[in-house]
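User: Could you walk me through two proteins back to back? I'd like the raw sequence and the structure tokens for each, with a short line separating them so I can tell where one ends and the next begins.

Assistant: Of course. Protein one, sequence then structure:
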Amino acid sequence: MIKQIFGKIPRKHSKYAGEPSPSSSSLTTSKRSEGGNKRLSSAVDDVISAPYSVLSIGNNTEDKFVRDKNSRLNGNLVSASYEALPSFRDVPTSEKQLLFIRKVKMCCVEFDFTDPTKNLKEKEIKRQTLLELVEYMTSTTGKFTETVMQEVVKMVSVNIFREFTPQPRENKLVDGVDLEEDEPAMDPAWPHLQVVYEFLLRFVASPETDAKIAKRYIDHSFVLKLLDLFDSEDPREREYLKTILHRIYGKFMVHRPFIRKAINNIFYHFIFETEKHNGVAEFLEVLGSIINGFALPLKEEHKLFLVRTLIPLHKPKCLAMYHQQLSYCITQFVEKDCKLADIIIRGLIKYWPVTNSSKEVLFLNELEEVLEATQAPEFQRCMVPLFHQISHSLNSLHFQVAERALFLWNNDHIENLIKQNRKVILPIIFPSLEKNARHHWNQAVHSLTLNVRKIFYDLDPDLFKSCQIKFQNDEAKENEVKERREAIWKRLEEVAAEKAASNQPILVP
């Protein structure tokens, strides 16, 4: 990724998409009066030279100070004095850390990237400065001082923390699967933000960053704001955030419970209130890696997370957006503790879709992965409600649902579990198999059904015949009830026709 940043970008002009290179004509036409240049020059110098007492994190005075300076920079003024600082190669080693801090402070100045014609020169200077900081962060040796950490976190916060105005999604969702066809919203500031994210990633991952000191600045407030950014519509930003969050979780052990709790709260808001969030898949990718590292036996906290968060995540209509990652997390829990299979399968049955066929196919896919890691004792606890549900899926008029349910018999482990418990399972699903074999409209479903019937018949002919006899008897009883019901309605109609002229109530024995 850093090759893309350094290898394709010349040192003088921007080649990022959507950000034109500065030209002499554009800079000439964008200049203002000499008085305006002096005012902006003073503003920039204030930001670059301000001590940390002014630029400290969480200081309201500082926030107003930076906003005031940025409001001037984002206006129509163009600074002639926002010039690049010397390169790290041009200063002695003893002065490099001071120059690093000056460059970091310089990058605290914000620009308006929604208008590609504004401040072209200044944007390019800042971008090149950020690239130098990334390179320095990689090549430097020696622990970062507390002052450096303060300035780094301050600069990153100023640049990446912002509010989103998400586009409404109601018209984009069709069975929760058509969102992938829409073009994601790309942030016009991404060529600039990408370098800031790369800088933050290298800072967190650097062995020169002492976690004991850095945790004072990469604190709970910083983590919460970072988690809020996962709702970005730009997938490139979410990819960086995912990697950075994983690094923070790995490096700052003291923050781990807080991060898990904060992600939980975001999921609760998503599941039970909005059903709208862009970063659920990325959160689940991080959690999948975290779950993989859980020690055994599993803590009660982690089991509660499974029951209260992961299983209810099957409820939203947009499940298709993150189902692959969710299924991986669920499967990790079963592999960690096979006794959880019963809880998971019953949870899937609880949230099983009734009218959404594409979502039902996803449930059947996940069910196969869970059953593959399920042992016989756990399977026996849940097989009755499970195969009642599978029986409904077998009779689905949507051929993909019926076909996917029949594919369960292609899995050797699942087939063995079914064979071992055939005396319980076959009576439950036999009516569905018989109905499919008689008159299902799809030829593939019809053929698969015959194959499954043959498996049971070859395995236990006596059981198969007894189920067949019971089905025929039940069918005869149903026909009798149907005929009796039709006879009653016919009698009602006859009596009603005879008494049509009377206002007396009609009693039918």
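----
Protein two, same layout:
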Amino acid sequence: MKSKFSIDSIFHQTDSEFWTNELIQIREQDFKEDYFLFYSNNKKTYKNKALKRHGPIIKKLKKNGQELWCDVTNAIIQIIEIQHVGYGLRITKNQSNLEFFGYVDGWFKELKKFCIQKQIKNLFIISNKLGSGNYADVHRLIRKSDEKEFAVKIYDKLSNKFDSECVIKELEILRKMDHPNVITVLETFESQKYIFIITELLISGNLDDILSKTTLTEDDAIKGIFKIIDALTYIHSKGVIHRDIKPENILFRKPNLEEIVISDFGLAEFYNEEGHYKYHRCGTAGNMAPEILKDQSYGYKADCYSAGIIFFQMLTQGQSPFIVEDYEETLQRNEQGQIDFSLVQSSLAIKNLLQQMLELDPFKRCSVQEARSNIIFKKYNRQTIIIKRKRIQQDHTVSSYSPRSTSIYQSPTNQTSPHFPISPSYKFIGAKNFHTIPLRLRSHERKLFSSPNSSNSGANSAKLQQKQKNSNFKINQKNNKTNMYTGMSSNKAI
């Protein structure tokens, strides 16, 4: 059965055959086998046949014993129903359909992460806007079947700023993520005008808010940075550099340091050995590795440097080592990488790790893997094995909320972390979660390479906002800070 893709789809398929017999580098034991009903054109009836699946890869066995497989990434998927047969799945790729019926719920739940669906309004209610950027808006999403809430990033395909290549790459990277402290995508929908990327709704603020209103103990700083380093180790193991690690992109599923989530992969890129990328200068001023600002080659250790900046802020009550009122001076300080470590009143072991993470020379700088094995994390290395197992059983999914924008750059204890206090000066939005979603009160608009709408952690920014507007960089002048979502808009280099 043939079916043509809509001409307005950004997920263009090739004209190759649906099935292929080329060699595939997946072990046979990694595939899960299930039996479904398939319609036989010869016998005009439904026959029971086996299908195997691993991630987005589906395999079938022909009568002659030959195995064929198909990668259904970005294929169209939909639930169908035929009287006297029941429910089934239709997967459309390369102008061809695969239809099968039976107990398809499990397969649909797994495949919808990799495939594209249509008609989002049949299943969800798009509710109030949570944030906006130059490339996408973020809305609250309500599932009709059970009223569960999610976040959805909506890209306008008709906008002259829409970049389909970047959206497809971001989806590819997000789909590789499966870690309790790293975001991932749940479902993706496409209409004639929009792309909808659905993620978990995180309502407990971000680290930038926490650093501005809470004094972290040394033990809490160690616990928090270990979670970030552990998550970055996983991200790097997938061959991905995040390139925008900063407090605004560290979200909380719950208001404690056990529930950190690294978000916003809008600037993420796959590592290459040459260390040069299509959009090479990416990041946020004050949080970037100096080699990026110097237009030198870089790799995974750029993320380690940015994590070191966060660790520095955790240990100094939110002080930034680079950000000052003058934006040009902020850039210069960030590029020079000269840090006053005397501001850190911590043990020698902690200072040594911090200096290793913030080493100016990337060849001498430690990697996140090396930082993770540091002696100060000895207890947490043992404890998080249990924590991660428990969380994976509860929930595999986390989310990203960050629309793109247009800047040219892109002490260990066994006690649980204390809940962060919610300031009475916070305002709140929403109806159902009226007392859970804080609005950012600070509007210190920091000039960013990646996120020109983000807030300024640890800097006296009374005059910074106006100075940044007068800078020579192309930034989004719209100041629409309503909550934590708007602090995470990413942008690519020009």
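The two ends are 44 Å apart (CA to CA).

Let me know if you want the two compared in more detail.
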